[in-house]
Amino acid sequence: MKYKPLPPLEELKEYLDYNPDTGILTWIKKPTNSVKVGQVAGGSKGSHGYIAIQFKGQMYFAHRIAYYMYHGVDPLENLVDHEYGDRSNNRIKDLRLASNAQNQMNHIKLRSDNTSGVIGVSWAKDKKKWGANIQKNGVQKHLGYFTNKEDAIKTRREAEKKYFGRFRRKD
Fold this sequence. Notes:
By secondary structure, the protein is of the alpha+beta class. The protein contains 4 helices and 10 strands; from the N terminus they run αβββββαββαβββα. A hairpin with a 4-residue loop joins β8 (about 120-125) and β9 (about 130-135).
């Protein structure tokens, strides 16, 4: 995904304060007449659940601004990943840079046709068993078939640790 560059850091710091412990951005200077000093910036969540902030006529994701203000580096082409999947949590300890592939490793939304309640585990009608799979770098790996759903889930979780490392989904 291509993101537009963020405004200059000095300009953001002139208008916004970022609290890394709470993840909240607040206005310290009025960017428009409708905004009050001390008001929480953003707050409107788009269809994807991310907090968006309008600044100088452009919309920016709050998590990208937070990362930039704390680290002093525009994430540019990198994604800023919410480690625990909560898109409204912009605490710095929960944000990290990630490639698109790494970001997909902790994907938490189940497909509508999921039968197990767990990503990568599904019922194989023809085998009458639970199947476990994992995908990394676009390559699907079959982990096995299991009589018990719990065994399939356990195998999937172990594979997440092995293949995804620190980017695996946290339960």
